[in-house]
């Protein structure tokens, strides 16, 4: 397939280029586009064949449902059976933005889009290019993250080009995304509402609107829960670079000491070692490929760098990544969720 890469300035959108991409969506094609969280791979959510092509392009298992993106709250009504009362204040507070809401689907959404489920995941992104693309196409756009299945989500067009060039019709390049981790997912078909995936909207923020919430037990890891996760996608190996990732968790001094010890042991065995450090610790390692994920006091910086950093280790040919854990509070909960999955829950407590 021939892929066109179109550059669009998010602060000054060239409407001719954007309308071209919207036409490709209308004709059932595949368009990768930026959102504020990660790049998405979009197609007409109401068109079964188009949705099917998303799974093909990504190599995604067909039971892993797609998120449907809208550009205004009133586009929600025809996509769901009914709008639960508690969803209204959620939309008011967090849309547009990185919150995905699970509701009962209406009949116009094909089951291909929802991976066979009777529920549908919906979100209204805040990125100006995403919003304009949805508005101009006049359609709800189904879009998973625009990576090959299993790889870290793309936070810049270069990642999308690396994974999907030749497999999609159009890739819109609008620079780096803002948040860097996928949206928070909340299931509003159950009572109390359940957090299925932590993300840019924190649990505390959700609780301010919803009161008490449940958390999918599967988020604590395969050793804690024997039930599969409620978001089908969370069960798959994910976010994985080619290297084996090991997370080291504990007081910062002990973490640094143990990473240095493990790094020496692995390099003596002939392995190329990479270290995921932070601004606070990056000086404390030498002789290895060290990447600072960001500032521990500004965890948003770590969120926005995480997937790029995982891909950088691949580019460097690193075989073992030793990663410092961060505090699993607020956005840190989402960071540690993605890191744990990248590591296949290979965590050493020190
Ligand atoms: O930030 C995001 O959410 C990005 C951007 C592109 O919007 N999209 C994204 O999509 O992360 P994806 O496909 O990588 O992740 C969607 C997750 C999967 O874990 C999937 O299983 C879950 O949402 N999901 C979708 N529909 C669902 C449903 N009806 N019930 C439960 N989980 C659902
Ligand atoms: Mg994904």
Quick recap of the structure?
The protein has 350 residues and is α/β, with parallel strands linked by helices.
Describe what you observe in this structure.
The chain has 350 residues and is α/β, with parallel strands linked by helices. It folds into two domains: 4-220, DHBP synthase (Alpha-Beta Complex), CATH 3.90.870.10; 244-349, 3-Layer(aba) Sandwich (Rossmann fold). Helices cover 29% and strands 19% of the residues. The protein has helices at 15-26, 48-58, 87-94, 128-137, 157-164, 203-210, 252-268, 299-315, 331-342, and strands at residues 4-7, 31-33, 40-44, 67-69, 99-104, 119-123, 141-142, 170-173, 184-187, 194-197, 214-215, 244-249, 273-277, 289-292, 320-324, 347-349. The strands form two sheets. Strands 1-8-2-3-7-4-6-5-9-10-11 form an eleven-stranded mixed β-sheet, sandwiched between helices. Strands 14-13-15-12-16 form a five-stranded parallel β-sheet, with helices on both faces. Strand 10, helix 6 and strand 11 form a beta-alpha-beta unit. The longest helix is centred in the last third of the chain and has 17 residues, at 252-268. The radius of gyration is 20 Å and the shape is globular. The N and C termini lie far apart (50 Å). Threonylcarbamoyladenylate is lined by residues 35, 37-38, 40, 64-67, 98, 100, 102, 114, 117, 119-121, 123, 125, 143-145, 182-183, 185, 196, 230-234. Residues 144-145, 153 line the site of magnesium ion.
């Amino acid at each position: 397939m021939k892929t066109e890469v179109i550059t669009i300035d998010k602060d000054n959108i060239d409407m001719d280029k954007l309308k071209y991409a919207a036409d490709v969506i209308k004709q059932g094609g595949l368009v990768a586009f930026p959102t504020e969280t990660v790049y998405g791979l979009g197609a007409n959510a109401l068109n079964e064949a188009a949705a099917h092509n998303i799974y093909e392009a990504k190599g995604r298992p067909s039971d892993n449902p797609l998120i449907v993106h809208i550009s205004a709250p009133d586009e929600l009504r025809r996509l769901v059976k009914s709008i639960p009362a508690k969803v209204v204040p959620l939309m008011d507070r967090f849309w547009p933005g990185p919150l995905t809401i699970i509701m009962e689907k209406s009949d116009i959404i094909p089951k291909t889009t929802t991976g066979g489920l009777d529920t549908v995941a919906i979100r209204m992104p805040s990125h100006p290019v995403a919003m304009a693309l949805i508005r101009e196409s006049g359609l709800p756009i189904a879009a998973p993250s625009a990576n090959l299945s299993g790889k870290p989500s793309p936070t810049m067009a270069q990642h999308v080009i690396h994974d999907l060039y030749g497999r999609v019709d159009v890739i819109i390049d609008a620079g780096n995304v803002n948040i860097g981790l996928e949206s928070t997912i909340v299931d509003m078909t159950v009572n109390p509402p359940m957090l299925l995936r932590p993300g840019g909207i924190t649990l505390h923020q959700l609780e301010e609107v919803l009161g008490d919430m449940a958390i999918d037990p599967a988020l604590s890891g395969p050793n804690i829960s024997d039930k599969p996760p409620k978001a089908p996608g969370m069960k798959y190996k994910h976010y994985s670079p080619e290297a084996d990732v090991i997370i080291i968790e504990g007081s910062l001094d002990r973490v640094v000491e143990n990473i240095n010890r493990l790094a020496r042991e692995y390099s003596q065995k002939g392995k190329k070692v990479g270290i995921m450090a932070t601004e606070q610790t990056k000086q404390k390692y030498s002789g290895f490929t060290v990447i600072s994920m960001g500032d521990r006091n500004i965890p948003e910086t770590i969120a926005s760098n995480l997937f790029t950093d995982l891909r950088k280790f691949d580019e460097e040919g690193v075989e073992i990544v030793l990663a410092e854990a961060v505090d699993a509070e607020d956005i840190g909960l989402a960071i540690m969720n993605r890191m744990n999955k990248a590591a296949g829950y290979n965590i050493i407590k020190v």
